[in-house]
Amino acid sequence: MTTSVPARSSGAHTGPMRGIRILDFSIALTGPYAATLLADQGASVVKVERPGIGDIARWIGVSVGGMSSLYQMCNRGKRSIAINLDSDQGRDVARQLAADADVIIQNFRPGVMDRLGLGYDDLRGDRTDVVYVSLSGFGSTGPYATKGAYDTVIQAYGGLGANQSDRETGEPRFLNQVAADKITAMYAVQAITAALFARERGDGGQHVELSMLDSVVSFLWADAAGNEVMLDADGSMPSSFTTAVRPLHFTDGWGICTPTSDADFAGMCQALDVDGYDDPRVAGIAARRTNVELMADIMRRCHASAATMTTAQAMARFDALKVPAGVVLSPAALHADPHVQAIEMLRDSVHPTAGRLRQPRHPAQFSATPASLGDGAPTLGQHTNELLSELGFDTAAIAALRGSGAVS
């Protein structure tokens, strides 16, 4: 079952990042998602947004009550302050917030924060041990440094589009998600915690630069660029060893079987009532790589047999023979899966403006310092007065800032 839990207050931090203060200038997905994962882990995150429109993610995708799913998933557990960074007073407020931050995250094009007087060199004078994180599409140097870099652009340059290309036509295909942004966000989280660890060891603060292109290439090359890594390879095998993977079509749905070991391969064939798996020409993994045509025939028969079974029948057979296999589930169907219910993966809550929410729990389970989902994502400028008060502004000063348009 899904678990309905009250949202953790943004002031109640229990995770391993508790006590760490993050100032998040970023927009869209990469920076915001990285910051919210750290908020799940207990960090206190202040999000700086543009007055009037806020983070563009507020306006993208499915939304209810003025709150988009994208913004909720990438900004839960944060406090929002709306600051006009084009005004002198607004930039002064931003500098005061930065002076109290352990981590600053920004994902504007290279040079923008420097021109605003909010770059690393500008802010480290007030906080010499700050970890300043600059996220960009192509990095701060090179001919593409100032090039626009949305997710699909990086999927194209970084190889994801080619990796997903149609095997027959060669037409590149893009993942139906902002994969490059999310990959970069996860690298950013690791880099931030590494930089904070280095600071704890006495190395001080530092500027961390991370590009989406670097992140996607690093991610892809781990398993999908074999010929590009092994420069002396003969090119007889595809660079991605999962290229030939095809789903199994059952009478009532789809599934996948991944027979990596010899025992897995034999078990898959037995489960699907396909003979020939003990033929010396395919019984071993090295032989299966060589005898491609025989393997193709066996796999054709496996797919044909699967088409006569229900998903439940096939999975029961695979499980009995300990063959790694799974059913293809949509996000909509996930909540009904018995394993997902047993581990309480999905959490239900209520947002004050968006209504009922269902979100996955933070994936890392910490035994001593548990992570938890924070409050629903804030409305634009929801915490402006609260944060200004914490900086020492009185009611009259806050009113003056609002009157000048420096904050909202």
- Provide the CATH superfamily of the largest domain: Crotonobetainyl-coa:carnitine coa-transferase, domain 1
* Arithmetic mean pLDDT: 94
What's the structural domain tally?
2
> Which band does the percent of strand residues land in?
5-15%
Placed side by side, the strands forming the largest sheet appear as 6-3-2-7-8-9
Q: Give me the secondary-structure category.
A: alpha/beta
| Fraction of residues in H or I helices | 25-40%
- Our measurement of the CA-to-CA distance between the termini, rounded to an integer number of angstroms, reads 41 Å
Shape, principal axes of CA atoms: elongated
**Low-confidence sequence ranges:** 5-11
What is Rg? 25 Å
The biggest sheet, with number of strands, parallel, antiparallel or mixed sense and barrel status, is: 6 strands, parallel
Helix count from the secondary structure assignment: 18
In CATH, the topology of the largest domain is named: Rossmann fold
Second CATH tier, the architecture of the largest domain: 3-Layer(aba) Sandwich
CATH class of the largest domain: Alpha Beta
Topology, number of strands: 14
